[in-house]
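RETRY 2/3 - previous attempt timed out on the joint model. Re-submitting the same 526-residue input unchanged.
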Amino acid sequence: MRSSIRHEELEKAMRIFEALSDVDEELLVRSEEVGKHEAGVISFWRYSKVMAACFCLIVVGGLTWGASKVMRQSEKSSDSAMPMSIAELAEEITADVTGDSGGTENSNGQSSMSDGNENDVGMALDQNKQSETDAQKEVNEREQGSSVEEQGADSIKQESLNTIVDTEAALLNPYEKISEKEAYATEALGSYIPATLPRGYVFEGAYRGQNEQTKEYTSLSITWSKGLDSIFLAAEKVEPSHIALTDLSKPETYNVHLYEIPYGETVPQEYREAFDNPVFLAEDLSLELITMRMKTVQDSGDTDTPRGDFSVLYESGVLVRFNGDASPEEVWEMFQSVKQ
Amino acid sequence: MKDSEILDLYWERDEQAIAETQKSYGKYCYSIAYHILRDREDSDECVNDTWFRAWNAIPPKRPSRFSLFLAAITRNLSFDKWKRKNAAKRGNGDIELALDELMECVPALHSTEETVEAAELERLINAFLHTLPQKDCNVFLRRYWYVEEYNEIAKRYQMKLNTVKTSLFRTRAKLREYLEKEGVVL
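RETRY 2/3 succeeded.
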């Protein structure tokens, strides 16, 4: 009985997995683009660590070993007619230490990946904690030819990772990961990020997209989080005439408090589109309006912070989409602090 | 060779198209297949079938994003193969874990509702993904589209392992809530 329930649940999960097949390409491209952008960062940081470790070893090891060599040499020199010169000694030290540095690089690379000691969030998924995935190993194995001995294991690993992400190089979606400061400084869109945030929220990430021809920034998104709560804002330039504004005189099309969850059963079909994505004019935005879009939902595994979503259209043609967890007052304060 | 040039070869029915596709996207597609199947031979077979499918589909198709076009074929073929192979017995593997996790997204049953059609479910999941913060969406797709492991995702996005887990945990809960809100029955 129990196994048949599990089987049923698994079948349903498989339906979700299959439904994901048809996900918008833009989303997949975006997930690749960020990866590609960061692969360079990973590479730099990995190698900078390796280089730093090697440098330390060269200095410490060289000095220690060199000192003992000098001492031995000086002991020998009393018996020898031709003592070793300092230059020869230095060459020998360098050669020996360089020979060791490969091992250092490998061990360093491994330790940098073994970050699987952190606490689990309660899911029985520890099986995923592997220092290197089998898939990656598999790809690596297939790449290994006569050049394997010439390259360090770490560089092969990095190469295969880069190969996977670089295959997307031809894709044309120039999303760029940026800092919070850069987000605020983004021309035309940065000014739509609120200066005031609810207490305790910290910056998590930001991205912006650029029109390759005009070089204008066309989209900007930023996320802050506080534990399990998050606030997501996305600003983009739109053609205002293409945006369907929510009719404020019809609260039944946007007030979440009028309906029970699941909304699929309670919100009339004719309101569904407006209800799912209400767009308000910036000048119409008010605490009352925001309150109508924010609701606390009893949900196991999540906080009881009110959550909600809506979009705000500014006169300049910038649409700001909000999706997050905070009290209506905090959200209202956020939007009031926009200095556009 | 550029994608557009490879696609031209397909349109000219030049079999060199397959060799060039293998050269440019062989490892990429193999990686997707292997994440699902965990079997070298099966993965190779799926990748070869991907080229065959692409050959039959282009023309008339001319995918705007060739890599994703191939990736989607590989993913579907690999999952189909996994289902066939695992109909009788299910072992351990990433896909098993990913599906176990996705079981958390299955909405509670409402007896009055009819089972949602596949196309509608696809539309709803797409809509849901668009509501997510970009980072959470990326992490979700790397896990459940590409079936990547947590530590791969963490490395890719320079995140802590725990942050990846938390993000996925949160997104699964949101998806379940979203599907329930939409009255979806699977």
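The mean pLDDT of chain B is 86. Closing ticket.
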